[in-house]
Write a sequence for this structure.
């Protein structure tokens, strides 16, 4: 699915981006409303990115710790 290919449609006074997805049994039309993000949505997105970054740092530290322990055990 190419997210850059969509058409804007208007329905009941609201605007949507319409994406066409090719599925196994035909085409699927996904309509995504066009709207401004609320402050709550922005904060939730920031929180998710922060959690992902922290988890990645923890995994990296754990890898380094395990590698150094393995090296010490091998010696």
């Amino acid at each position: 699915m190419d997210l850059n290919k969509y058409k804007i449609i208007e329905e009941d006074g609201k605007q949507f981006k319409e994406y066409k997805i090719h599925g196994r049994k035909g085409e699927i039309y996904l309509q995504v409303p066009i709207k401004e993000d609320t402050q709550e949505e922005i904060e939730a997105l920031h929180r998710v990115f922060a959690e992902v970054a922290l988890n990645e740092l923890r995994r990296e530290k754990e890898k380094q710790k395990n590698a150094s322990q393995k090296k010490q055990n091998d010696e």
Q: What stands out?
A: The chain has a mean pLDDT of 89. The first helix runs from residue 39 to 74. The beta strands are 7-11, 14-23, 26-33. The helical segments are 39-74.
